[in-house]
Amino acid sequence: MPYSEHLNNLVALTKEARKLIIDMAASETGCHIGGSLSVIDLLIGVYSKYVKDENTTIVLSKGHTAAALYATLYLYDLIEDNPAESYGQKGSLFTGHPNHKLPHIPFSTGSLGHGIPYAAGWALGQKVKNQDGLGIVLGGDGELQEGLCWETAQIIQAKSISNFVYIVDCNGGQNDGYVSDISPIHNLRQRFESFGFQVEEIDGHNMEHILAALELSHEKPLALLATTIKGKGVEAIEGNPDAHYAKIPERVASKWKRSLV
Amino acid sequence: MSKSGRDSYRDELTKLAFSNEQIICIEADLGGKNHPFEQSHPDRFFNLGIAELASIDIAAGLAEAGFVPFFSSFASFAAVRAAESIKLAMGYMEKNIKIVAAYGGVSGGWFGTTHHCLEDIAIIQSFQNIRIACPHGELETRRVIREAAESKEPYYIRLARNAVYDSLDRAEESSCKDILIEGKVHTNAKLCLISIGEEATELCKTIVQENDSVVHAHLCYVDIISLKSYIGDLKQLSDTILVVEEHRATGSSASNLALLMPECKVYSHDCGEKWPMYGGTHKDVLDYLGFGLEPLQQQIHLIGGTDGF
């Protein structure tokens, strides 16, 4: 398939994923829509490259954006059921944070920070086995307030776990407001560089940038700092940290889905 | 000469790893110096430094990749500091991780309260799905390590510091999940002492030598599934039970057995409610907490009443 066609297909897939996320926000429980819409392009891009690589694990460490993960797994045919039909309901495994009882979710995340060491452990295992697999983790910028992220970065550097990719969804928001107001993460590039990472900054909504970043060869662990917009794609909530979690009426969901570019 | 539990662990794991290439040994800066595993299997030995939470989650990733990671630290830093990682990775997700926790109870003696752990069994027990073993002496420790390596279940293995104990006489074919019984009476005894852990087992060995009417049941595994499996045999031994355990009463094996055996009288000889704030030897700290031979003898006397045992 020509690259341009592949790219267009992925962009189309992100639109379908956004519709599913909006549907989950219109469920009885609502969902973490803001972060789900900021991370979805990154998830679709990562899965497009590694979906069939059994030696690579992909972990969504910012687990509150489970809606984005469920949408991605569904659109790549890795789970059978449409998550929007039972999200959050009694008896449904589509819980508000990723559930390892579902296929292709190796680790239940949601308590922030834990996905990073899990993926690092997987990557370390590939090294011991002399395999080429990667540990890929998608985390948040707010999540970096957790000490466990940096405890793990210390180990990644100390044990030269270079087959590790840490994608940070830098949407600038967290539950109670802006990251910059609550506990800013200063000098993020320099921080990762000081832990021995190769650092690249990308537009987290530009699929071409995302795919290119995933092709980068790296002898060190790779940190991709992805600038994103909370609520991306839905003009009414874009950039608003109050959109961290939302429960919306069906008519609003229909309007938002129609307005997606 | 016998080895301590910690040395037995290091030696046994190193031996096992020659035939089991899936075993990985993880330390957190509290046992890695001149570790025999590192000398024999350097590519599978990782001292991850002072990072207990991350170590457990990294072990989860290794387990998912097909390895059998053994993580060792002190009980306080494993069970308490890394509790959330254990809850999620080992309890909820049942990753095949083995924790070997030294310095259980107050075996750290003069190291002080930060290094003591009288709450670990309660914490781990509450997470469900995790096997809990408190082996006594070299032979039982080695056997528990072998059983853990063969099992796909997550394990929490509680050891003490560096003290050496004479191993109990456990039959070669016996599993550590079997009750080990000492004493002249083996059914309908007036009192059954249950020992859990090294010091407790030493106390019970002494009591049973002094008192013909008491039977001693040593339990190595104390997770809820194991405790349930013992009930029938324990009832045969006696309807009056005194559990001796270097732990708080809260969440102790005595409290669990009391719930599992409501028709029996279940008593506890434990470390009480005080904080172990003073220095001294392991025994000195236990004395301060009211855990030892003399208070145990007094408690047995009180339980026996005027008729005694």
From TrEMBL, chain A:
Please list the residue ranges annotated as the Transketolase N-terminal domain: 15-251
Which Pfam families does this UniProt record tie to the protein?
Transketolase_N
Q: Which residues form the signal peptide?
A: none
| Cofactor section | thiamine diphosphate
Q: Which domain of life is it from?
A: Bacteria
Keyword annotations of the record? Thiamine pyrophosphate
Q: Which InterPro entries match?
A: THDP-binding, Transketolase_N
The UniProt entry's sequence similarity note says: Belongs to the transketolase family.
Q: What is this protein called?
A: Transketolase
From TrEMBL, chain B:
Protein name in the entry:
Transketolase
Task: Tell me which UniProt keywords the record has, alphabetically.
Answer: Thiamine pyrophosphate
Signal peptide residue numbers = none
Record-annotated Transketolase-like pyrimidine-binding domain positions: 3-167
A Pfam family assignment: Transket_pyr
Cofactor(s) needed: thiamine diphosphate
Q: Into which family does the record put it?
A: Belongs to the transketolase family.
Q: Which SMART domains match?
A: Transket_pyr (SM00861)
Q: Which Gene3D superfamilies match?
A: 3.40.50.970
